[in-house]
Amino acid sequence: MYAAPGFAQQTPSSLPLLFDARERLAKPDLSSLVRLRFLTSVDFPPFNFTDQNGKLAGFNIDLAREICDELEVAAKCQIQALPFADLKEALAASQGDAVIAGLAVTADLRKQFTFTRPYLMLPARFVRNAKAQINGNTAASLSGRQVGVVKATVHEAMLAAFFPAIKAVPFENKEAMLAALKDGKVDAAFADALQLSFWVSSQASAKCCALFDGPYLSEQFLGEGMTIMLRQNDGVLTAALDHALAALSKNGRLQEIYLRYFPYGLF
Fold this sequence. Notes:
- This protein has helices spanning 59-70, 87-92, 107-112, 154-162, 174-182, 193-200, 219-222, 235-251, 253-261; strands at residues 2-3, 36-40, 43-44, 48-50, 56-57, 77-81, 98-99, 113-115, 124-129, 146-150, 167-171, 188-192, 209-217, 229-231.
- By secondary structure, the chain is an alpha/beta fold.
- α4 (154-162) links the parallel β10 (146-150) and β11.
- 37% of the residues are buried.
């Protein structure tokens, strides 16, 4: 688990580097590549969606295009959207070469496919009611206080495991939890940073609340992060994508895409 100290204001934040700056990943020869076909979906904003002009857009779409530019295969690049449920079968049937759609890595999927290194982690965060009298700016100051969480979620399990001194208040859904937080019925809430970031900066929150402490990352509860899925026999292409992701992470272009779609930050 990783926690960044301090009270998180709604300002752009840096994307943590997931690649060691000292590491050099070789760039495989792709001169024989006929085309590079990315498969995605259109139902996962702000990662993949159809914009007002009917074109594919989103964090993953821009990232796929940057990868193609980095690998100098932009002219051979294609991005196709399919229903999310069809992505695995389409990749297995060679209807595409790589899936970039936020598929969670599981043990069963690893038996069928291979994955790049993570390019983005989706942390958990606290969000606090600004009127709550909290003495401190870390999770320790929430000990003994009521903190909302959606029941039967990984965040409920993570809150219990890492913050046992906090009095968890379970809610049936996110909407009920955020309504209780806004009304001051709980002092804080613990949930997915992506959802909390957009809610805090939206009119729905009425400026009641702010992100607090964190971010918190845990592979046990939150998974390995966002990766690109490929067929197991595509070792060369997997290595090429890892090379591109590392380069984009180090030269700042991944950070630029991140701030384009997450202007208030996740971290």
